[in-house]
Amino acid sequence: MADIIYTKVDEAPELASASFLPIIQKFAAAAGVTVGTKDISLAGRILATFPDHLNEDQRQSDDLAELGRLVKTADANVIKLPNISASVPQLVAAIKELQSQGFALPDYPETPETDAEKAVRAKYDGLKGSAVNPVLREGNSDRRAAKAVKSFAQNNPHRMGDWSADSKTEVSAMSGGDFFSNEVSATLDADTTAKIVLLSDMGETVLKDGITYPAGTVVDATFMSAEALKSFLADEIEKTKADGTLFSLHMKATMMKVSDPIIFGHAVKAFLAPVFEKHGAEMADLGVNPNSGLGDLLARVKGNADIMADIDACMAARPPMYMVDSDKGITNLHVSSDVIIDASMPALIRAGGKGWGPDGKESDTNCVIPDNSYAPVYDESIKFFKENGKLNPATAGTVQNIGLMAQKAEEYGSHPTTFEMPSAGTVKMILEDGTVLHEHKVEAGDIWRSASARKAPIEDWVNLAIDRQKAEGCRAIFWLDADRAHDAELIAYVKPILEAKGVADKFEIMAPREATRASLETITKGENTIAITGNVLRDYLTDLFPILELATSAKMLSIVKLMNGGGLFETGAGGSAPKHVQQLMEQNHLRWDSLGEFCALGESLTFLADAKANEKARVLGAAVDAATQGILDNGHSPSRKVGEPDNRDSHYWFARYWAEALAAQKTDAELCAHFEPIAAALAEKEAAILSELAAAQGPAVDLGGYYKTDADKTAAVMRPSETLNKIIG
Question: What average pLDDT does range 544-570 have in this prediction?
Answer without folding.
Answer: 91
